[in-house]
Design a protein that fits this description.
There is one protein chain. The protein is mainly α. Helices cover 50% and strands 2% of the residues. It contains 16 helices and two strands. The protein has helices at residues 13-16, 26-33, 37-44, 48-57, 59-62, 68-82, 86-98, 123-136, 138-145, 153-163, 195-204, 206-217, 226-237, 240-243, 256-267, 293-301; strands spanning 109-111, 118-120. Strands 1-2 form a two-stranded antiparallel sheet.
């Protein structure tokens, strides 16, 4: 039986290379690449942006939880891109407020283990939200450790406000939450309802703290300076999704060299660089220019304790 050549292959290469741009999802890409040698070579040269778009279209099937897995995988690159210039940093902050939000997941109740408390959250989502924060502001941490400016506190707070929505995140004093994204339909319609509070609960729980303490002890004792210690505790946890390997038994061993270098950088920080970046109205948070998720989460969820 004679083999017939597809009429598509008669088209100029300049047109054929555009085919992946019009595919619906990653499954279509896989089928196209397995059609013949010509299309296989074309698919090999497709840009990462196209692959990411197709992967996002298939995220409910291949990259769960959706969309947190893909966001966590790409957040570090976004953080470095945002620090390239002021225009990029502004675009990121605008996207956090008005772009597509990561909150369309059905709520369900789940109780804690080591620190018993009933919180309206999804633990898997909370874990990925922390990974995304660590990756997105990893470049900021590195810049701060090298004496350069990173993404500012206002940008970090905007990420928490609008990408990790919470019913208790509300206006008080000089703190403002815009009626946009998850808050556009009123506070009573916010879903999910307690994501910020659930992350704060995790960060303060014994089950979470213990493996991180063990990872830090491999590199030396705690810092006597409270400010350096706060940066050290936060920095170890800000290694993105890959850094969660340290939570596994013996998982911190592979990170020992990296953590030693990180600790040495913190030890060399000029004390003047650890000054407060912003005064806290209630005198409860010593704002540092370094990313400190626990403090920033508390600032956003403080309405739970009746502030404002």
């Amino acid at each position: 039986m004679a083999h017939t050549t597809s009429p598509l292959l008669a088209l100029p290469t300049d047109i054929l290379v555009l085919l992946p741009h019009h595919l619906a999802n990653l499954e279509d890409f896989k089928e196209l690449s397995s059609t013949c040698r010509v299309f296989r070579e074309i698919c090999r040269s497709v840009s990462p942006n196209i692959i990411l778009r197709l992967a996002a279209a298939s995220s409910r099937v291949f990259f769960r939880p959706d969309p947190y897995f893909l966001v966590a995988a790409t957040a570090k690159q976004i953080g470095y891109w945002a620090l390239q210039n002021e225009k990029n940093a502004v675009r990121l902050r605008q996207a956090l407020k008005h772009g597509q939000q990561w909150y369309n997941v059905e709520d369900f109740w789940n109780g804690g283990r080591s620190d018993a408390e009933t919180i309206d959250c999804e633990p898997e989502r909370a874990l990925f939200q922390m990974a995304i924060y660590g990756s997105l502001f990893h470049a900021t941490l590195e810049s701060n450790l090298e004496g350069r400016k990173g993404l500012d506190l206002a940008t970090r707070l905007d990420f928490i406000k609008y990408s990790i929505p919470d019913w208790y995140c509300r206006d008080y004093g000089g703190f403002h939450v815009e009626a946009t994204g998850p808050y556009c339909n009123g506070r009573d319609n916010i879903t999910p309802r307690m994501d910020q509070y659930s992350i704060r609960h995790i960060l303060k729980s014994r089950r979470w703290r213990t493996p991180w303490e063990q990872a830090r002890k491999q590199c030396g004792p705690d810092f006597e300076d409270d400010r350096r210690q706060k940066i050290w505790v936060s920095a170890v946890q800000m290694q993105g999704l890959e850094g969660f390997e340290m939570l596994r038994p013996d998982g911190a061993e592979r990170w020992k060299g990296h953590l030693h270098k990180l600790r040495e950088k913190i030890e060399r920080i000029d004390s003047n660089k650890m000054r407060s970046a912003e005064k806290d109205e209630f005198g409860e948070i010593n704002w540092l220019e370094f990313p400190i998720l626990e403090d920033e989460i508390f600032c956003c969820v403080r309405g739970m304790w009746g502030y404002g």
